[in-house]
Amino acid sequence: MNGEHQTHWAAEEFANVRLGEKRLDARLITLCDRFSDAPESPINQACADWAETKAAYRFFQNEHVEIGEILAAHRCKTAQRA
Fold first, then answer.
1. Rounded CA gap, 79 and 7, in Å?
2. Cβ(10)–Cβ(40) below 8 Å
3. Minimal CA–CA distance to 35: which of 76, 74, 1?
4. Which domains are seen in the chain, by residue range?
5. How far is residue 46's CA from residue 82's CA, in Å, rounded to a whole number?
6. Maximum Cα–Cα distance for the chain, whole Å?
């Protein structure tokens, strides 16, 4: 898969996610793109540079990032595909 396809996929998959801030919603899609491009890589290798790596760690530590919200958006899209 190329990066463009995965970004498109991630943007569609998580279009309904609401993490409380638009920048967090956008970061989720960016991270999905990076990790799907290199699923076997650790975070620092999957990210484009050190700034993006730090942003990824901040995302995962952010109290507004709720796994339930992310999974709810994923479940919704899965149900639509079924």
1. 20
2. no
3. 1
4. 3-81 (1.10.246.40)
5. 31
6. 39
Which ranges of 1-82 would DSSP assign to H, the alpha helix?
3-13, 22-37, 43-46, 50-61, 67-81
Residue 5: C-alpha distances to residues 12, 33, 38, 69 (Å): 11, 9, 14, 23
Question: Residues, the chain, total?
Answer: 82
pLDDT by 10s per residue, the chain, length 82: 455 555 589 999 999 999 999 999 999 999 999 999 999 999 999 999 999 999 999 999 999 999 999 999 999 999 998 8
Q: What pTM did the predictor assign?
A: 0.86
